Amino acid sequence: MKRALLALVLTTSACSSAISGTATPLTGNLALVDARGTGSALDGVQTAAEAVFSYDSANPAAFDQAVAANVTGAAKDQLTTLFEQVRKSKQAVHLATRVRAAAALDFTGDRVRELAVLEQDSGATKGLATVALTALKADGRWRVSDIAVNPAQPSPAPRPDDGTPAGSRDAAVAGAKAIAGGLFTTDSADPDGPYARAEAVIADPLLSDYRAKKASYVDAIRKSGTKVTLGPNPMAGVVALTGGRAVVLFFTTLQVTDAAGKATGKPFTVEFDVVREGASWKATAVRPVTAS
Known about the structure:
Elements: H1 2-11, H2 35-52, E1 55-56, H3 60-70, H4 74-82, H5 84-88, E2 94-107, E3 111-121, E4 126-138, E5 141-149, H6 165-184, E6 186-187, H7 192-200, H8 206-212, H9 214-224, E7 227-229, E8 235-242, E9 245-257, E10 263-277, E11 280-288
Antiparallel strand pairs: 1-2, 2-3, 3-4, 4-5, 6-7, 7-9, 8-9, 9-10, 10-11
Helix pairs in contact: 2-3, 6-7
């Protein structure tokens, strides 16, 4: 029963980094540009999210109090829907949630939208969900105002890649999405094509590893019998940015089509280490986000 409840909450439906020494005017999307503000916002949303995505059937009033203190707007109804069957369960339920990773997508001082990975522990099992959370700051407190599980949302309008922190941030996001397309778009009918696309978007040490294992990668693609594409509106946010290097949190629902033509969606979250090479960004490491 606990496994079913965990799946219901997670599938039905913080980190901070710094760019210091910038003279960029504090306007527009301040994610990472205002390092202190971004970190404070992510910390505040982490506190709110961990409170309202946790639940103890022995003390349901604590959940209601957490929602009242940490949630506003549409998120109240969204949480009611997510936890409806959990709250109706006749069995004991204890779910503890923590934020495994988070990246600010859009931050304007009193509003933040972030991509976050939640890990929920029932005591018997653990599971992950990637969510897009919007939160508003009022009276010194961050409150979640919108929740999207397995999100597919457009990115904020990018700044030009002009050497400013905001421009570099958005270039890294675009680069990560291009990297994901090269690495995770495959077709068993053309195994060499996906490998070549992957090789074009990676750099050492990952590139050397791919080349050393080329035969096994190509063979695995051929034998898979599937075609894989990125879902619409993949999402990415920069966790850390230093010069020409960045860590990017990336999420999409992969569209996997089998040999019979049946398509299924597979939520997929990774962290990329990326490096700028000329006008492009390439991955030096890829870390799937998994339960601890």
